[in-house]
Specification:
alpha/beta, Glutamine Phosphoribosylpyrophosphate, subunit 1, domain 1, 3 domains, 22 helices, 27 strands, globular, binds 6-O-phosphono-alpha-D-glucopyranose
């Protein structure tokens, strides 16, 4: 998602800021901008701002036309969330003497906008970020210097942010702050840097301090002073980074895919942020992308998608049926367009796509539109073709996914399907407030359990080593674990080139059982839920034919150890939510098998991240 850089020192900083932004390009963006201040040439000069839509090359071209002077500055690459990727929505945002860049989402931006409008503030963008610039300006007008003004303003803000702020009144400083979004401070010699990630500062210094949530920093050329939002001093020493710049782009992980697997708790938090109303056991209506009149018409929910996204829809269908009591179907987009589907105005067609550009899904959506169905897109990339064609969008906010094999986009799609099902269930009264409250409470606790599951990394790695020499593998699941088994098999074949099948465990006896022998690893996804007893029997059947079974089971299960050859015990969660947890060991398993085999994990042969051919 967005990238932030900042510099305060003695060098002209515009080119330096652009260089930092280049190193953050991997985060994905659709516009960019800079603001600089001249520190001490005797006269007071206004903040200079330059912004451009599209790639950094456009900003560089604009800089050539109009060079920015100054030795204090901030820069930003924006990945649109609130408002289209246009020049007015690009950061930095300016209010009076203040310029600010922001990464994250301000949850109470609508309330803040109402408040500021009532005071006569005029807005020049559609962003949530601009509210923060105006809040700081309001504090500045009340006579507070920059550091104090930022602390006072942020105390009024709910949501995720990393911000860097400059102030024409005090051109020798940058104030930075963080909550949920990352912010790194780099220590130079007579100069200081700020950035969203270590690679942006690594060419200049390897001494860094990672700001913690709720901390605010005052950066001058000589160093940093850190405080908590409520003004308590924080003393922490910078640490020395020993990674190379290339490694650092992956945050120290060997591959983007592994980094993205580990980012999932954060990604789920971002999908849920500002959308869950725990007090009322509901989903915030303005976030779901559908109006109540549309929802009232819906008698069936039809999911269309391709690849990994289609596996998320298999989970979505189960949730819509069990939480909202609405009949639901899933279909591969390419098959949907190839026949004459019977759909109409009482159907809600939900197109799910991480890229938002998959041509098959887009074509299927167009068919649904022609037939008069209600439309919704679940997508990760803002303003991509599918959400635009649907006219209604629910964004997953997973952040850019670089690894071709989808991981965090998949689990955030599961979360989007869950919120949609709760929303529908609450609208039609099938889901009570109390039941929704309980489920949503368990949902917001998921990132915590996902972090605990990620701690199994080393164990899964050890289990993966012998699998690297297999020629085939069978993945089994039932109920909500069926989509996870199918997705687990797809991950393995995508990146390790080992043939794998994902099967509904009940179907094993109708065919795949013929394949089982001592050379056939069987991976059984079998958390504690109502399908457990049945899949445990299927595992026994596989073992009786010498199949080598790796079970993904719930911690505390005392019998599975005696049945399966190996067990990966995962944290206990609400049975409906187990896919968020069981997905993780399967992703890690595929990753390590592929890594042991030495395949190109992030860019597997023949595959593309965005598929725009039918
Ligand atoms: C490609 C990608 C997959 C993805 C599929 C559907 O095959 O490699 O990871 O699941 O397209 O893409 P979408 O962007 O529509 O989710």
């Amino acid at each position: 998602m967005c990238g932030i850089v900042g510099y305060v020192g003695n060098q002209e900083c515009a080119d330096l800021l652009v260089d930092g932004l280049r190193r953050l390009e991997y985060r994905g963006y659709d516009s960019a901008g800079l603001a600089t201040l001249v520190r001490s040439d005797g006269e007071k000069r206004p903040i200079e701002v330059l912004r451009a839509v599209g790639k950094l090359g456009n900003l560089v071209a604009a800089l050539r036309e109009r060079p920015l002077k100054g030795t204090t500055g901030i820069g930003h690459t924006r990945w649109a969330t609130h408002g289209r990727p246009t020049e007015v929505n690009a950061h930095p945002h300016v209010a009076g003497p203040i310029a600010l860049v922001h990464n994250g989402i301000i949850e109470n931006h609508l309330a803040l906008k109402r408040e500021l409008s009532a005071e006569g503030v005029k807005f020049s963008s559609d962003t949530d970020t601009e509210m923060v610039a105006h809040l700081i300006h309001r504090e500045a007008k009340a006579g507070h210097e920059l550091f104090v003004a930022v602390k006072r303003a942020l105390a009024q803000v709910h949501g995720a942010y990393a911000v860097a702020v400059i102030d024409q009144r005090q051109p020798d400083r940058i104030v930075v702050a963080k909550n949920a979004s990352p912010l790194v401070i780099g220590f130079g010699d007579g100069e200081m840097f700020a950035a969203s990630d270590i690679p942006a500062v690594l060419p200049y210094t390897n001494r860094v301090l990672l700001l913690e949530d709720g901390e605010v920093g005052l950066l001058t050329a000589d160093g940093i002073q850190v405080e908590s939002l409520d003004g308590k001093k924080v003393e922490r020493e910078p640490r020395t980074i020993t990674w190379s710049a290339a490694q650092a782009e992956k945050g120290g992980f060997k591959h983007f895919m592994l980094k993205e697997i580990h980012e999932q708790p954060r990604a789920i938090e971002d999908t849920l942020r500002g959308r869950v109303d725990l007090a009322n056991g509901d989903i915030i209506a303005s976030e779901i992308g559908l109006d109540e009149a549309t929802v009232a018409k819906v008698q069936r929910v039809y999911f269309i998608a391709c690849g990994t996204s289609s596996h998320a829809t298999l989970y979505g269908r189960q949730l819509v049926e069990s939480l909202a009591g609405i009949p639901s179907q899933c279909e591969l987009a390419s098959e949907f367009v190839g026949r004459d589907p019977v759909i109409g105005p009482t159907d809600l067609v939900v197109a799910v796509s991480q890229s938002g550009e998959t041509l098959d899904t887009l074509a299927a959506l167009k068919v649904a539109k022609e037939k008069g169905a209600q439309l919704l897109a679940i997508a990760n990339v803002i303003h991509s073709a599918i959400p635009r064609a649907a006219g209604a969008a629910f964004y997953t906010h997973a952040g850019p996914e670089i690894g071709v094999a989808s991981t965090k986009c998949f689990t955030t799609q599961l979360a989007a399907c869950l919120l949609l099902a709760v929303y529908l269930g609450r609208r039609n009264g099938k889901l009570s407030k109390e039941k929704a409250q309980e489920l949503l409470q368990h949902t917001v606790e998921l990132p915590h359990h996902m972090r605990a599951t990620l701690a199994l990394d080393d164990l899964v790695r050890d289990l993966a080593r012998p699998l690297a020499s297999s020629h085939s593998a069978l993945f089994l699941g039932r109920g909500v674990s069926f989509p996870i088994a199918v997705e687990g098999a797809l991950k393995l074949k995508e990146i390790s080139y080992i043939h794998a099948e994902g099967y509904a465990a009940g179907e094993m006896k109708h065919g795949p059982i013929a394949l089982i022998d001592a050379n056939m690893p069987v991976i059984a996804v079998m958390p504690d839920d109502r399908s457990y007893e049945k899949i445990a029997s299927n595992v026994q059947e596989a073992r009786a034919r010498d199949g080598v079974v790796i079970a993904i089971a719930t911690r505390g299960n005392s019998e599975i150890g005696a049945i399966a050859n190996k067990v990966i015990y995962v944290p206990k969660v609400d049975p409906l939510l187990s896919p968020f947890i069981t997905s993780i060991p399967l992703q890690l398993l595929s990753y390590y098998v592929a890594d042991f085999k030495g395949t190109d994990v992030d860019q597997p042969r023949n595959l593309a991240k965005t598929v725009t051919v039918e």
